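lol forgot to send this yesterday, sorry. struct tokens for the thing we talked abt
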């Protein structure tokens, strides 16, 4: 498994669309900023066949430091969950 950076993704999109990188970069960044903004507003983002991003509340809990074995309180927090869509499931499971 390899890691693809935002820069590499922008380069691929620029190449696939025959657009200049300087035109693609702000569009990709704006898209990512909007996802963050909508999730921060507790909105659900649904991209048909790709998947759904939504936030949920994780309850406060007690945890333990594995090194010191000291008990600590972990506060409640919001987390982002992703549920993949039909086309992504098919692609990942080799049913394309």
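and heres what i got for the seq, position by position
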């Amino acid at each position: 498994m390899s890691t693809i950076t935002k820069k590499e993704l922008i380069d691929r999109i620029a190449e696939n669309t025959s657009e200049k990188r300087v035109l693609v970069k702000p569009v990709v960044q704006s898209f990512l900023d909007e996802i963050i903004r909508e999730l921060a507003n507790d909105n659900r983002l649904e991209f048909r066949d790709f998947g759904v991003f939504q936030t949920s509340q994780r309850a406060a809990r007690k945890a333990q430091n594995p090194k010191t074995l000291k008990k600590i309180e972990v506060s409640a927090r919001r987390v982002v969950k992703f549920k993949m869509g039909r086309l992504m499931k098919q692609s990942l499971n080799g049913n394309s």
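The radius of gyration is 19 Å. anyway ping me if u want another try
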